[in-house]
Amino acid sequence: MKTRIHSDHFQSDSRPIIDDVQNDLNTLGNEGWELVSVQDISLPDGRMFTVAYLKRRKKG
């Protein structure tokens, strides 16, 4: 799965724009994944990125 993320590298105060997140999360949900948490992380140079934590039941 590739989610497109756009950010303005010249403006550290702006948040990235993420395309089709709802569609990507729905696709993952249909495959058995569950969204657990989302975390915004700030880098020392002021840029930010977002991490999504997902889990899935073990088979077997």
What can you tell me about this protein's structure?
The mean pLDDT is 77. It is elongated and about 45 Å long. It is 17% helix and 38% strand. It has one domain. It has 1 helix and 4 strands; from the N terminus they run E-E-H-E-E. The two termini are 25 Å apart. A two-stranded antiparallel ribbon has the order 1-2. It has a two-stranded antiparallel ribbon with strand order 3-4. With 60 residues, it is an alpha+beta fold.
Rg on CA atoms, Å: 14 Å
DSSP summary: helix tally = 1
Instruction: Return the average pLDDT rounded to an integer.
Output: 77
The main pleated sheet reads as: 2 strands, antiparallel
**Stretches with pLDDT under 50, minimum 5 residues:** none
Strand order of the largest sheet: 1-2
Q: Give the helix/strand class.
A: alpha+beta
Oligomeric state of the chains?
single chain
Tell me what portion of residues adopts beta-strand conformation. 35-45%
Q: Strand-and-helix sequence, N→C? A: EEHEE
Provide the number of structural domains.
Answer: 1
Shape: elongated
Overall helicity: 10-25%
Q: Give the CA-CA distance, first to last residue.
A: 25 Å
| Count of β-strands | 4
